[in-house]
Amino acid sequence: MPDGLPVRRGKWPAHPVIYQIYPRSFADTTGSGEGDLAGIAGKLDHLADLGADAVWIGPVYPSPMYDGGYDVADYCGIDPRYGTLADLDRVIARAHDLDVRIMMDLVFNHTSIAHPWFKASAARRDGMDDWYVWADAGPDGALPSNWQSYFGSPAWRWHEGRGQYYYHTFSDQQPKLNLRHDGVRDALAKVCAFWRARGVEGFRMDAVTSYLHDPEFRDNPKASPEVSARVAGPPEGEYKRQDHVYDFLPGDGVAFMRHVRDWAGPDTYLLGEVNSGNQSVELATDLVGPDGLDSAYVLDVAERGLTGTILADMVARGACRHGLAWWFSTHDQARHVTRAGDGSPRDAAMFGALLTALPGPLIVYQGEEAGQPQAELPHEVVNDPFDLRFWPDGPGREAARVPLAWTQDAPGYGFTTGSPWLPMATTGLPESLAAQRADDGGSTFNMYRHALRLRKALGLADGGTEILDAAEDRITARLHRKQGPPVVLALNMTHTARPWADLRDRDVLLASTAPQNRETMAPRSTLWLTDGAPASAYA
Length: 539
Prior knowledge:
Layout: E1 17-21, H1 37-50, E2 54-57, H2 85-97, E3 101-106, H3 116-122, E4 134-135, E5 156-159, E6 164-167, H4 182-197, E7 202-205, H5 225-230, H6 253-264, E8 269-273, H7 280-287, E9 295-297, H8 300-304, H9 308-316, H10 336-339, H11 345-355, E10 362-365, H12 385-389, H13 433-438, H14 444-458, E11 464-471, E12 474-480, E13 487-492, E14 498-499, E15 508-511, E16 520-521, E17 525-530
Parallel strand pairs: 1-2, 1-10, 2-3, 3-7, 7-8, 8-9
Antiparallel strand pairs: 4-6, 5-6, 11-12, 12-13, 13-17, 14-16, 15-17
Helix pairs in contact: 1-2, 4-6, 11-14
């Protein structure tokens, strides 16, 4: 069973289903070709019908948009491309009518170089000299340390006006805030209070493992092959060649989450991104607790592979403790139905039935419930700096952000009446979301909706996981519940039928593809099965 009991925050369920929206690509109401807040408000019924408890809205703050909005220029405003604060108020009000909670994306590791705070700090004025991480050059102008940025370059950028280097964990357009500074912490607490006052009930905290670093800027050691395999980032990047012991949460990092909890308040749900692959699961569970995060998610499945072996390894390392959220796709990774599958509705259903069975919180990325595959974008239309830095071997972030197809009977696929900001015709679209919702049969959307309802009825979110068998292309697990007999989860990722005599004695509770007979799993399928008790015991 999960270790400990989660703290219940306000009206939040213990283990919420969180639907992630990338606002620029969700729904456009103005014909601009970019999604907006009014589009989100108009589609909330869809998300409530799916079974979402909360909606994580990606950054909608004023931004130069160098890094897709994660380069924030004003924490308490709305970029005009998305609308106004009044538009966000309408989103929040409509969500609350539907018993859905709104979770804002807070990027507290860094700001944009366009943020007034950075301009003041660079000019050493307004008492903000040390609001960012500045360092003198080493002997003969050397960099302050050997730290590498996640975006594939040295993590230090010289600032001519200031005459010092500034540290950037990611892009050089995103200078690192000094989160040990009292003034910075007070300012971030006010940001949280601003959004709470507007009715926001949760925050997704971007890159929490980057918040703190060694104040002495000691060099990171070289990574061993074992460590390098778990470090997030492009396979050929310098970033993976270091063991990030000094630039990621040294020493007091876990205790620092108490500050984050104080900023958020006792009733606000906190979801943290753990983007350090080295000991990621162990670190994520350490960051979760009554005085810290409510949940965290790691990059293992996206970085290491969506296989039975990886899932079993994560479970063995504590991934089914109550604080770890499961997900297969986000705005930062190629869509899993293509990355780990063939992009087909069959594979979308297989992975969906797997995801929705796992205990703890869940994250569903927009379009995943329709089986939307990864787009194929040519180099000339890609603007994402991370993808371009490692082209064509990057993660395909921008191709995962192609606008969502709501219908197939309009030029803009129901997303826009204008020209979409990224081309949509190359996505190999499945049946549209509108058609899938209207279909009472076996659409991907209806499989997700049914699975989420059954998950709730069976209490799978509150359970624990016992791995019975695992290999690259399969996994079998017993999902223990607080009440009632366990559920058996079986995944067959091979392209052939899997003989399995245990099917004889079990009833099927859910199937992504129905078994071929009482002894054989269908290819590329997931099953939820009874375990030594009649099906009536699961009603």
